[in-house]
Description:
Elements: H1 3-6, H2 40-68, H3 74-103, H4 108-125, H5 128-152, H6 162-177, H7 181-189, H8 193-219, H9 228-239, H10 244-254, H11 268-278
Helix pairs in contact: 2-3, 2-4, 2-5, 2-8, 3-6, 3-7, 5-6, 5-7, 5-8, 5-10, 6-11
Amino acid sequence: MTAAAKKLDTTGIMEVGIKVRRMDFEFGDAIPDYWYGNDALLTLFLTALSATFPEGEKQFIQSVRNFQEQITDPELRKQIRAFIGQEAHHSKEHDALNDLMKRKGFSVLRIEKRMTKMAQWMRDNWSPERQLANTVCAEHITAIMADFFMTKSPQELEKLHPQVRKIWAWHVIEETEHKAVAFDVYQRTVDDQWLRRSQMALLTALFVLETATSTVQLLRDTDQLTNWKMWLNGTRYFWGRKGMVWKLLPEYLDFYKKDFHPWQHDRLADLETIKQKYLEIGER
């Protein structure tokens, strides 16, 4: 029996101790432009993700709140409150990181405005059930990306500038802690397997398109677009034999299984290890 299985309560909800942390990160202008291993592509890839978080996480919160009153299980209700608290703080802290990149001259505001319009379109055109399914899918993508930095390639966190490493390590921890909350709400309220799977296919296409578009957009603010060494390194990073895509693909595909649950990917021991290593960065 895995550690995750041992922590399941009688209703099948994982008791993982989701904690809302107030971090108040500060990002000074002395931080280099390319804070991910002095690599423009990788830095601006993470910047593109960061630019989507404040608006995206507001949407995640609302999609779960739409179904919150239907949940009677006390443990899951407690986890929903913690999920909302964590996601709200993610928005706040990534706003601070995004402000740093704006001060450096990157067109982050353009991405933020696009995300605001996209989120409003979803609220206007998608049912609450589809919006929740979208959150479930997005949480799985962020969870497996967090796992890339936590277990599959932990050396990548060490390549980040120390001041920026703080926010990404913290985000990795919290995305792992609450990775099943929206899923459990969905299973207990909507429980439409076709909607869950089809929405993942749609979101994957949208995520890849938006992230690639935003990263290239940010690169246009630099003199790096013709840096072939940067592109070669990026190709290896994402598509190489030991790259991100191939490392994450098995766990991504698990999502389409009928009996899938996020905590089948048991990362409790790894979560404790990364907490011990990085939570002295400012938890209070």
